[in-house]
Amino acid sequence: MTEVQKSMALFSGSVNPELAEEIAKDLNASLGNVKLEKFANGEIYARYQESVRGADVFLVQSVCGAVGYDVNDALMELLIMVDAAKRASARSVSAVVAHYGYARQDRKAAPREPITARLVADLLAAAGVDNVITIDLHQDAIQGFFDLPVNHMTAMPIFVDYFSSMGLDKEKLCVVSPDVGRAKAAKKFSTMMDCDIAIMHKDRPKHNQAEITALIGDVQGKVCILNDDMIDTAGSLVAAATTLKAKGAEKVYACATHGLFSGPAYDRIANSIIEEVVVTNTVPVPLERQTGKVKVLSVGPLFAKTISNVYNNGSVASLFE
């Protein structure tokens, strides 16, 4: 019986090519050539410029807005790339979803609402995805929306390394969860940092608006690190930081895996009392914005290791042990 030779093919969507290039470099590989275009009416077109027959294809895409693309374009382009790869006889297709768009719509918060996070999972499966690689989903339970393997990573060790390198006094340090839903992750972060934890409670009277209603824990004289999965308009973040300062916090830092920075986000952060906002490059942040209070760390090496382990049937969990 002839042994089938495995081959990996790595391609990038239009939204986050810088991250894809970094992943390719860390894998000592080259990005494949794929033609991606928009027709005059806005429809998206994809065609692989090289054979992917029998290859294990990995498609890197962030489902978010970028220059010339909105979140819906990003999702549709990924689905079309998956379909094209399957029809070109790829052995398997892995969607490397650096940012999983629509993740906040993971339940029915009011009658007659959709569960769009589940719909996105169904669309990826219907397009032909065999495996998903992603990082810091809005809720861990989103993994259960899939009937296929989901390799769910976390950027927390990257943030721990960064803040540990700052030489902050652990006796004064306090990790703060901006809401109850993030408390479990904040507890893990505080354990890794060997410091105190505080938990905030917030209400959302409407979309992109938050009100801090309670704080559990003592932040008097503390250096606080607000930890969340994403920053959108930064309204919740700035409100939380202002509350912490009013409660006696000495300094407030913030970190989140996904820096969406929609609308007034950059101005809100610049005018806030926050010392620094640390995000990763799961969502592209323009170079001109990576100054002042906004710091961007790379998840490229982490994605590269995960892709390598998935391709070679290794353990992904071992990367976080």
Descriptors for this entry?
321 residues, alpha/beta, Rossmann fold, seven-stranded mixed beta sheet, 8 helices
Word description of this protein:
The chain has helices at 17-26, 71-87, 116-127, 156-164, 183-193, 235-246, 265-270, 300-311, and strands spanning 8-12, 34-38, 44-48, 56-61, 92-97, 131-135, 150-153, 173-177, 196-206, 209-216, 223-231, 251-259, 276-280, 294-297. With 321 residues, the protein is α/β, with parallel strands linked by helices. The chain has 2 domains: 8-154 and 300-320, Rossmann fold (3-Layer(aba) Sandwich); 156-297, 3-Layer(aba) Sandwich (Rossmann fold), CATH 3.40.50. It has a 7-stranded mixed β-sheet, sandwiched between helices. It has a 5-stranded parallel β-sheet with strand order 1-4-5-6-7, with helices on both faces. Strand 11, helix 6 and strand 12 form a beta-alpha-beta unit. Helix 1 packs across helix 8 (300-311) and helix 2 (71-87) runs parallel beside helix 3 (116-127). The active site is at 202.
